């Protein structure tokens, strides 16, 4: 499953779980896979889970910001959403979002 939109990365845990269930059900239907663990399906088909895609997207995003030519971009990323009262994850923090659990 290809996740390129940043809104997918800030989705709630329950919505991410729904996407992962949809991914596994779709793969089972497409390839007529019997009832085996989703972990083995992903390994055999060389697929990343939705959480892994979100982490990868976040790491790439952070790398692009760190290497950006415009100095204003690097200054903006340092304190952009750190002091927000909303329970949202900023895109740079998504790489460690699932590692905490």
In words, what does this structure look like?
This protein has helices at 6-9, 13-31, 38-44, 50-66, 71-77, 94-97. The chain is mostly helical and 101 residues long. It has one domain (13-96). The model has no long low-confidence stretch (mean pLDDT 75).
Describe the oligomeric state of these chains in a short phrase.
single chain
Q: Considering DSSP H and I runs of 4 or more, what fraction of the residues is helical?
A: 55-70%
| Low-confidence spans | none
Average pLDDT number: 75
Structural class: mainly alpha
Protein name: RNA-directed DNA polymerase from transposon BS
Coiled coil: 40-71
Keywords: Coiled coil
Organism: Eumeta variegata
Short structural description:
This protein has 101 residues and is an all-alpha fold.
Helix and strand layout, with pairings?
Blueprint: H1 6-9, H2 13-31, H3 38-44, H4 50-66, H5 71-77, H6 94-97
What key phrases describe this protein's structure?
about 55% helix, about 100 residues, mainly alpha
């Amino acid at each position: 499953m290809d996740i390129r939109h940043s809104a997918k990365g800030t989705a709630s845990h329950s919505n991410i779980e729904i996407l992962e269930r949809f991914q596994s059900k779709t793969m089972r239907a497409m390839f007529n896979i019997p009832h085996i663990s989703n972990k083995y399906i992903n390994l055999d088909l060389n697929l990343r889970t939705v959480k892994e895609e979100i982490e990868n997207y976040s790491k790439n995003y952070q790398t692009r910001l760190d290497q950006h030519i415009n100095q204003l971009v690097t200054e903006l990323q340092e304190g952009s959403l750190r002091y927000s009262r909303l329970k949202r994850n900023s895109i740079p923090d998504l790489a460690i979002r699932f590692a905490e659990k």
